[in-house]
Amino acid sequence: MVDRVLVAEPRGFCAGVEMAIKALTWMVRVFEPPVYCYHEIVHNEWVVRAFEQVGVVFVNDISEVPEGAPVMLSAHGSAPEVVAAARDRAAVVIDAVCPLVTKVHHEVKRMADRDYDILYVGHHGHDEAIGTVAEAPDHIRLVEPDDSLAEFTPGDPGRVALLAQTTLGMHEWEAVLEHARARFPGIATARKSDLCYATTNRQEAVRRLAEQADLILVVGSETSSNTRALVRVASRAGATAHRIDTAAEIDPGWLDEASVVGVTAGASAPDHLVWEVVERLAPSEGFELVSVTDEAEYFPLPPELRGFLSALQLAVEAGFCVKTPGNRGPVQDDRSWTATRALELIHP
């Protein structure tokens, strides 16, 4: 029987996911279905299904997008040739890439232009890693966190850079960084870790949960790298941890010896799924929040979408003879509403 539930703060949607979900919500409200999206907008099954139900078609190749159809590029970042192909094919292209992923893309191009050999720590096959490596394939080598660097031989040992997928576990990044610095003392890295603030904050919150909980449940999909990292972080901290998509996946056997259960969520998991888990656990002494920091980060809608919607707003104002055209509208007030509210509009 579960006595207490500890709910991590922060958890769930990060600023990049908030931006991407709101952007795709705008697309389905403005355009007649189908609206196309290159790759899953975020790596969460519930979110993907919600958008599919209102006419979003997720594709893995731009050639699957009909000529002239609207298309959005996912939050994980796309290869340059994908972006170019989308612009050649689609009537409207909105790139919802997370700004923190864009930062890594820029760093890859900068280092490649300076003829550096780049070690990129990431996961083979992950959308973010694929898009990042494609920025400079002749200069970059992807290494898994557990890979040995022994076989890596740069052209110039004095011109080696180390970058990372934003959703790695902090311990994974630090281990590779230590080995790389030992072998290449002058290795170039970002002034701050490439790991995003949401990744590090959620991992710190999980470590805090592990100090008190007998069991930790991480809400999020298998395709979510940062969700899987949370499970690994919890396990390394000594807690039994399981990933679940929804409360329905909780194995009653997990709870036999669990008096205190910690609950958190990956950066692409909707918060209502967390509270359904808490309800399913039915703690006899209730729940409490375990907070490590407050997050106030905000990423505005993609510039292409802001421009398109602002033009549409002005056209509507003109068409209806609005007395004071140019007033603030929903685009300008984007900061005041959330991805959770956006999802409620399409999936009440």
Task: Walk me through the structure.
There is one protein chain. With 348 residues, the chain is an alpha/beta fold. It folds into three domains: 4-13 and 197-291, Cobalt-precorrin-4 Transmethylase, domain 1 (3-Layer(aba) Sandwich), CATH 3.40.1010; 15-97 and 318-346, Rossmann fold (3-Layer(aba) Sandwich), CATH 3.40.50.11270; 100-189, Cobalt-precorrin-4 Transmethylase, domain 1 (3-Layer(aba) Sandwich). Helices cover 38% and strands 17% of the residues. Strands 11-10-12-1-13 form a five-stranded parallel sheet, sandwiched between helices. A four-stranded parallel sheet has the order 3-2-4-5, with helices on both faces. The chain has a four-stranded parallel sheet with strand order 7-6-8-9, sandwiched between helices. Strand 6 (117-121), helix 5 (127-133) and strand 7 (140-143) form a beta-alpha-beta unit. Helix 1 (15-30) packs parallel to helix 11 and helix 4 (99-113) packs parallel to helix 5 (127-133). The longest helix has 17 residues, at 303-319. It is globular, with a radius of gyration of 22 Å. The two termini are 33 Å apart.
